[in-house]
Structure formats: C-alpha cells, structure tokens
Design a protein that fits this description.
The structure is a homodimer of 270-residue chains. Chain A has 270 residues and is an alpha/beta fold. In chain A, 43% of the residues lie in helices and 9% in strands. Chain A contains 13 helices and five strands.
C-alpha cells in the first residue's frame, strides 16, 4: 500500500535528512549517530558486508541496471568490457564509476552498465540472466520505475504500481537466490517538475517511489533517495538545470546523482 | 627549488596514493591510518578546525578563487549573492558547491565564486581585498597557476616559477593575518596532455605544480591533488574526455574535480 508521504517528510522521518542519507554508512561505521537503521543490517552482515559502511571490496564486479537514465547512450558494442568509458554511457553510472575507479586505483573493480532505455521492471526480468546473473555482480545498483508509470499515460502500457512492486520483489528474490553474497543498492525513481512532467504524474508517481522504498527496505543494503535529493536541488536552481525534460538528468543532475550514489555505498567515506 | 617528482610518485610518497588523498581527513578523524601527516595539523587545530576531518562548520562562508577553471562562465551581476546558481558558474565550484548545499541543507553555508578567467597569482593579489578579504570566508579554496606558466609561452608575460611561489606565499600570509581563523584549501594546478598542451609545457609546468604543493604544505589545511587525479583518470578515458583543450575541464572533468574537492575538505566523509 502506498505511503502518503512527501519526499521531504519521508527523509526527515529518519532522524533528520542528513541522518537519513547517511544511515547505512554511519550505522556500520560505529559512529555515534542517533539514527534508526532502516535496512536489514543483520541480513547485510550475513552477506559479508565490509567494515566501515563500505559496500565494496577488492575485485568486486559492480553492475548498474535500469532504464534510459542509467543507459545514457552507452555503447552496446563495448558492453562486455569492464570499465570501458563508452560502455558506461555518459550519465550518473559513468560519473560514479569513474570517480570510484580514479579514487581507488588498483582495487580491481570491474564496473558494468546494462541499463536499457525505455525499460520497465518486467523488462529487466526478461533479460536478467544475461544482463545480470551471468555477470555475477558483487554490488548491483538498480534504478527503475519511471517508465513503469510514464508509459501508462499514453494508454499503451497497462501496468499498475502493484505489478511494479510485485515484479520488483520477484526480481530481487531471484537475484538473492542466485547470488546470495550480492549487495543491493536500490535507487529511488525521481522526476523534476518540468518538461514532460506535468500534473498528470501526481500523486500516482509518488506511489511508485513509495513502492521502490518498500522494496529497498525489504531487500537492499543501501537506498539512494534521488527524489529527496532533487527536491533539495530545486531550491538551489530551477528543475531544468537538473533535468531539462523532467526525467533525464543534465550533466549537473548526473554529477549530483553520482555524489549521492557514492555516499550511499560508503565509498566517499574516507 | 622544484621537486623532480612525477604526479604518481609524488602521491605514492605519502603512504600510498589513497592514503595521500585522504591524509587530512583520516589524520583528524583518528582513524588508524599509517600515513604521514603532511599538513600543519597543530596550526590547523589552533585555527579551530572541526572534529572528524571536516573543514566546515555551520554558517560558514565558502569562497572559490582562481582563474577560468573556477570562473567557468559565472555571472558577475549575481556575484554578491551567495549560493546563486549563475554566480557559481558551471564548473567544479558549482558542482561541489551544489553537492554540499544539497547534502547539508539548513547548515547556512554561503558559497561564493570569484574566479576570473586568465588570472595569475599576482592578479588575485590585485583584487584580494574586494574579492576575498571583504567576504570574510571561513573556508577559502584556491586553484591558480596554469596561466602563470601558460602565458609565458607566447612571450607576453615574463613571470617565473619563483615569482609564482613568492607571490602565492605573500598572498596567503596576508590572508592568514587578515583572517586568522580561515581554513585554506589549495588545489593543485593541472593539465591534460591534449589540445593546447604540448611538449613545450614540460618539465616547466611540473615546477609550478611542485611550487603549489610546497605552498600548500606551508599554509593549507587541505590539498587537492588534481594532477594526480587526472593522471589516473586518463587511464580510464582519453584526456579529451576530461578537458578538450587540455586546460578547461569538460562536465565529466568538473564532476570528478568536485568529488575530490569534497573529499579533501572532508565533506563526503559521512
């Protein structure tokens, strides 16, 4: 059932917005933070999560999955090559992956991007063997959901938020069964209120966000609150600065996403 | 006297490259790192540096200073307004400032950018009263040096590395005397080997980098090793990906700089 929450209330509900954004890293770092721990820490600990809140270890395979926001023009021809600039596209996956690889050279990270433009969660499932399980990721990051709603607006797709959540949970159950050691990062679907995003999106789209958060609480090691982040960002600059059409981030939007993604996985935590 | 070091050796000389990049934050965080502390920690402690390696505190005024790389097309008309998107330009200062303001809303940070395209260190000095001291920054970040060398190549400027270092030290002495509580971030001048950057730049330009590092060791609370960062980045993608003309960063280059700047000041340290 969708939660009747706004992104800001949502974020503030966990001991303050910053506390919320940092919860995973702080809790595991043993820093004296007075925040509730929203993730299944015990489960994550069983999965071999490293110390100090970091979700990555040497030689990890890191996979970004999602739709066009993740895809960002990546080269299909190079898709099988880890850390290839073209294969990572030009969006947040590239910027986050590049920062990680530059900051921690010699760690042997292998970063892949298999986002595909237009994808909904059931379409991830259709290609999950070849585009996820076969790669045996140690860290899997997923950003999916905007099309699951958007494509219903023109009447060509008839999915619902219940189907989205059910399919998402099924996909993650399957993933955890196939790769029990995997660490999962769930990114919050987001929109900016400009471009293609008009009043027809609300409150329906908020229900997809809430569903993604429930899925994250049940399955993920970290959650990246992109909607809360962009709600704050539009206090600083107009929505078009971050995503001209309301859906696809600009360079500045992608850079901000990369920052928050790296923080969420604890990789900029010193 | 210039140090005969390469960026990589240089970085590795401080307990490993990552150790070097993290030294300031780690040392102050009390994390059990076995790195030499290259900064004047005692002096910084006297200057009231906050706990846990962070260089910022509530309501701090943060000032970015430098040349075109910092300027990045900022609006002069809005220059007096803190946190104004136009006034911050479109480069690393904007991306780092935006990440900081979005990540820590309600902290009352006031971010300014007063970089001016073409500036050399003596030109910072010429406008230092109005463009630095009058703003009373708590954190001052400077990236200067590429023009101090570049402009000698066409014979129109006759500065030397000794003049650069002397002027830089004089500027920082003046700054510390006027604002004893200030925290200083010195950014390493850098170039990528493409575009306008050819064999005539070396080894002379390396001497300017070494001078900036000596100045940082003497005066700064943190040093951002941008050359070392880009040396690593070009192992991942061609130099043009990071700075088409070898000097001015692309969006991806600026995003990477913002990441490393935020790490250097300890603001992405959880």
């Amino acid at each position: 059932m969708p939660e009747p929450e706004s992104p800001r209330e949502d974020a503030l509900g966990h001991g303050g917005r910053r506390g919320f954004l940092k919860t995973s890293a702080l809790a595991l770092a043993g820093v004296g933070a007075v925040v509730t721990v929203p993730w299944p820490v015990a489960e994550a600990a069983r999965a071999g999560r490293p110390k100090r809140g970091r979700l990555l270890a040497r030689n990890d395979v890191i996979l970004f999955q999602g739709d066009s926001i993740t895809d960002a023009g990546r080269s299909r021809a190079e898709a099988a090559t880890a850390n290839a600039r073209g294969a990572l596209g030009s969006g947040y996956a590239w910027l986050a992956g590049a920062a990680l690889l530059v900051d921690r050279p010699g760690e042997g990270f292998q970063v892949y991007n298999r986002g595909i433009s237009g994808n909904k969660v059931f379409q991830l499932a259709d290609r999950w063997g070849v585009d996820c399980l076969d790669l045996k990721p140690k860290l899997l990051s997923i950003l999916i959901g905007v099309n699951d709603f958007w494509h219903t607006l023109d009447g060509k797709y008839h999915g619902t938020v219940e189907i989205y959540e059910r399919d998402y949970r099924t996909l993650l159950e399957r993933t955890r069964q196939a790769l029990p050691q995997i660490r999962l990062v769930i990114c919050e679907p987001f929109v900016l209120r400009c471009g293609a995003v008009n009043e027809h999106w609300f409150p329906s789209f908020d229900q997809y966000r809430a569903a993604a958060k429930r899925v994250a609480k049940a399955y993920a090691d970290a959650f990246v609150p992109f909607q809360a982040m962009f709600e704050e960002a539009v206090r600083l600059a107009p929505p078009e600065e971050w995503a001209k059409d309301g859906v696809h981030p600009t360079g500045a939007g992608a850079s901000l996403m990369a920052h928050f993604w790296l923080e969420a996985v604890g990789e900029l935590a010193g």
